[in-house]
Specification:
single chain, mainly alpha, 434 Repressor (Amino-terminal Domain), 6 helices, globular
């Protein structure tokens, strides 16, 4: 996931599933507006939400969480990862 934001990664996953933002939102339990915010990195997700998205899409939790942690490291540094782990 080098040089791609987590939001862009989520968007690529949504498109790989062939879903609109509305359909994707329904599948993961949110609105199309929140999907748009996530895809534009305007909404910071909790790790539990990332795991929930993976489960609801039948994806590997590890792959999605790794992408999320890489995004945190790239955008906020190691301190953000430590903060997530400590919660």
């Amino acid at each position: 996931m080098k040089n791609i934001t987590f939001g862009a990664y989520i968007k690529s996953i949504r498109k790989d599933f062939g879903l609109t933002q509305t359909e994707f939102g329904k599948k993961i339990g949110t609105t199309k507006f929140n999907v748009g915010y996530i895809e534009r990195n305007l909404r910071q997700l909790k790790p539990s939400v990332v795991v929930s998205i993976a489960d609801k899409l039948g994806m590997s939790r590890i792959n999605l969480v790794q992408a999320y942690l890489q995004h945190l490291a790239d955008s906020s540094g190691i301190d953000a990862i430590v903060e997530v782990i400590e919660k």
